[in-house]
Amino acid sequence: MRTNIKAQCAALALAAFATVSAQAAETLNVVTFGGAYEAAAKKAYFDPFTQATGVNFSLESYDGGLAKLSAMEQAKNTTWDLIDLESNDAITACDEGLLKKFDKKTLGNTSDFIPGSISDCAVASMVWSTVYAYDASKLKTAPSTINDFFDLQKFPGKRGLRKSPKGSMEWALIADGVDPKDVYKVLGTPAGVDRAFKKLDTIKKNIVWWESGAQAPQLLADGAVVMTQAYNGRIDDASKKDKKPFKIVWDAQVYDYEWWGIPAGAKHADTAAKFIVSASQPKAYADLSKYIAYAPPRKDAIPLVDKQRLADLPTAPDNFKRAIQINPTFWADNADEINKRFQVWLTQ
């Protein structure tokens, strides 16, 4: 019976977007974070949709944020049909009317989705994590905790960090002794913000900043840093596909959902919505994990993931012992203020 129900659901999902198959010339303009994730999404999400419907994709990469989307919407000249978003941007974009509301009913039975992975305007595309990594061929002693990232005496050398306070502030507090479960309670106070910046001060002169996800593994490969903050999928990709001797330290990993959203002024919004339904099927999520080490936000996708691959995902039990989930509401509410202070701090 369960097999029949799954087959029926799959058939309904195909029927939901099969009507666009006649529009073979239609092209969805999609913006993502590029790199290894975009390549994996192409194999798991975009190519199967093209094969099923004839719809093509024009891909553009960016480093996140809502400035360009907001400008396009204000000018009433939106060229994007689908956007790849971090959680706080998905919340803010929805609140500010930059995204269309998403009809959750089109997804069918959503009981197996991880709580919080479907919002009013967006659907999670995967679970990813901010970790730090090092080149095992260059370190005699392996770092194992977030404290090691901040310990310049034990592990001298440069550190790579994303040029953003998000993730780094959380790490700074944990390395300074704050329990992971209390991070946002502390960071939500002026004293907590001061404390995080003070801890970052201890490694500031040794920081090499990066902005796009592809830069982090490149910094390691070039020997420009001893260890670097990075997206787990980028390091896994470099390790497995490029045979780089990189190792991930999962302690204090900061995990988050990635989201698909449709700009309010999208010219192909209906087709974009049908794509989201297609990309949110268990098999599609499992296929993504095959190509990059990001986890499915649907429980029914887990049995479809190769057992050996499960160990590489952020949600694997051994990797999840001191994980913290990014608090998107905190960052949606406080990003502007903390970012302003961060920009001043960079110049000091």
UniProtKB/TrEMBL annotation:
It holds the Pfam family SBP_bac_8. Coiled coil: none annotated. Transmembrane segments: none annotated. The keyword Signal applies. Keywords: Signal. Gene3D superfamilies: Periplasmic binding protein-like II (3.40.190.10). It comes from the Bacteria. The keyword Signal applies. Residues 1-24 form the signal peptide. This is Extracellular solute-binding protein. It comes from Caballeronia pedi.
